[in-house]
Design goal:
Helix 2 crosses helix 3. By secondary structure, the protein is of the alpha+beta class. A hairpin with a 5-residue loop joins strand 1 and strand 2. 36% of the residues lie in helices and 13% in strands. The two termini are 23 Å apart. Strands 2-1-3 form a three-stranded antiparallel β-sheet, with helices on one face.
C-alpha cells in the first residue's frame, strides 16, 4: 500500500495510505490535491518537510533517496522498522522521559506553603522496557 500526502490548506499536508491511486471521486472530498505515491512513510515525511520549492526533489524516488541519506531522518527510519507494539512502547517511553525531564513542574505548588501540610514525594526512575531491536 502506497503513501500519499493530501493537501488541505496552503501548507497543510496530511499523510495517508491508500491501496489504490486517489482520484477526485475517492479523495476529492478530503483533499484539494494529492502528492505521491511514496514507497515509504519516511520518503513522504521528508517530502512534506523539505520538498516545497526544492529543486533536488523532482520525484518521489528523489525524496526517498534524500531521506535515507539525511541523518535527521534516522529516528523515522528506525520507527519504520518497528512493529506496532514496539512503536507504542517506544512512544510511551519517550512521553515518560519528556515528563520526567521537563523543566515545568508537574504538580501545582500552593500559593502559601505554610497552608500545605503534606510532603512532596519524589518518584524514582520510571521503568521502561528496554532491549527493543532497532536495526
Amino acid at each position: 500500500m502506497a503513501y500519499f500526502l493530501g493537501k488541505r490548506g496552503q501548507d497543510d499536508l496530511i499523510l495517508f495510505r491508500s491501496p489504490t491511486t486517489p482520484t477526485k471521486e475517492t479523495h476529492g472530498h478530503l483533499y484539494t490535491a494529492v502528492i505521491g505515491p511514496f514507497r515509504s512513510r519516511v520518503g513522504a515525511s521528508y517530502f512534506a518537510r523539505y520538498g516545497r520549492n526544492n529543486p533536488h526533489i523532482c520525484t518521489a524516488d528523489d525524496a526517498e533517496r534524500l531521506a535515507r541519506a539525511d541523518p535527521l531522518m534516522e529516528q523515522a527510519i528506525v520507527e519504520e522498522s518497528m512493529t506496532d507494539e514496539e512503536l507504542a512502547i517506544a512512544l510511551e517511553c519517550d512521553a515518560q522521559d519528556q515528563a520526567e525531564y521537563s523543566t515545568k513542574p508537574t504538580l501545582p505548588l500552593p500559593v502559601h506553603p505554610v497552608a500545605w501540610q503534606g510532603t512532596i514525594k519524589i518518584q524514582g526512575a520510571i521503568s521502561c522496557l528496554t532491549g527493543l531491536k532497532t536495526n
